[in-house]
Write a structure and sequence with these properties.
The protein has 326 residues and is α+β, with helices and mostly antiparallel strands. It has helices at residues 11-18, 136-141, 148-155, 167-177, 184-208, 220-235, 243-250, 254-265, 269-288, 292-298, 304-315, 319-324, and strands at residues 2-10, 29-30, 38-50, 53-62, 66-72, 75-84, 86-90, 93-97, 105-111, 115-121, 126-134, 160-163. The protein has 12 helices and 12 strands. The longest helix is centred in the middle third of the chain and has 25 residues, at 184-208.
């Protein structure tokens, strides 16, 4: 089963897309917006690749402040956030995931029993994420019953393992979120192969015990400033504001802004801006069929060759491959 909604996505559309999969999503219940009123502007995809293996991706702007409730089954959930921010709770376990440039923010979540998932979104927010759901049956058939650390993780309800995906994994996730055009049967096989590779990398990190250390918490006022800055950067990816101008925009100073941004995202503001410009160039290649040289200008690169190198490192595909696929 492959289901996709594009451009404008309402609560009713989401419910129709996810309900056929089974219990997953049957209790989907957004608040505040009528069922036919658009919740998202962008792309929402939900695929059951085979029994027990479900891939869900969102690449969209949020149109309302929302609390959405979902039913989740027993198993393991792999979540990768490549852009924007995801604020979600599995039962009492709350996760706030936001990526740094060139890397996703990712986590494995163990659900030893069925649980309620609550997602919080803000109007004007942006999200680019991938979620893979794996049931115990699928995991057992994949041979993971013999992996002691995986089994131990699965048995601990609401256990969370943070991990930093490789550049290869980032490319795989991008191919799931915006897959190339294939015939229907090959499309499913393509997605399944990427989902399995991502699952393999996540479980390898779990077995090595190489999860990320918790990020230092910011004071509430500083966290609000970072949220304002992220809104600015997500909504204006081609911004030419200086660091001082960005700091003034959120009521801070350049030094504090840079330190707090690095604390939260592990990179500088302008490293993040460069990645957002690459994303804008990718969208322009797909939507407007720009030449590679024109896309390099969009991304702020003076050299098309340097742009192509950075682009392939980020997405796992060359600009020409992305352009020719659409």
């Amino acid at each position: 089963m492959t289901e996709t909604a594009d451009t404008w996505v309402s609560a009713a559309q989401i419910a129709r897309l996810v309900t056929p999969v089974g219990r997953e999503g049957q209790r989907f219940a957004p608040t505040r917006a009528p069922s036919e009123q658009p919740l998202l502007q962008g792309s929402f995809q939900f695929q059951e690749l085979r029994s027990g293996l479900v891939v869900h991706s969102t690449h969209a702007h949020e149109l309302h402040d929302q609390h959405s409730l979902w039913a989740t089954e027993q198993g393991v959930r792999l979540v990768m956030v490549l852009g924007g921010q995801v604020d979600v709770s599995f039962g009492h376990q709350r996760l706030v995931l936001a990526p740094g440039p060139g890397r996703a923010s990712a986590a494995l979540v163990s659900l030893a029993q069925a649980e309620q998932l609550e997602r919080r979104t803000r109007s004007g927010g942006y999200v680019r994420k991938l979620s893979i759901s794996l049931t115990p049956k699928w995991l057992d058939e994949a041979g993971l019953h013999s992996a002691q650390q995986v089994q131990g993780f699965m048995q601990e309800h609401l256990s969370v393992h943070h991990w930093t995906p490789s550049q290869h994994a980032l490319g795989l996730a991008e191919q799931c979120i915006q897959p190339s055009a294939y015939a229907p049967g090959l499309h499913m096989l393509h997605l399944e192969s990427r989902a399995i590779e991502l699952t393999l990398e996540a479980f390898k990190h779990l077995q090595r015990g190489t999860g990320d250390c918790p990020r230092p918490a910011l004071k509430p006022a500083d966290a609000r400033r970072m949220a304002q800055l992220m809104d600015l950067l997500e909504n204006e990816p081609l911004t030419t504001l200086s660091l001082d101008e960005m700091a003034q925009h959120v009521g801070s100073n350049a030094t504090s802004l840079q330190q707090q941004f690095r604390t939260l995202h592990g990179c500088t503001v302008f490293e993040y801006v460069r990645q957002r410009r690459l994303q804008a160039a990718k969208q322009a290649l797909q939507r407007d069929q720009l030449s590679v040289a024109q896309a390099a200008e969009v991304a702020g690169y003076g050299s098309a060759a340097n742009f192509a190198t950075a682009f392939k490192r980020r997405y796992g595909l060359s600009p020409k491959q992305v352009r020719s696929a659409h």
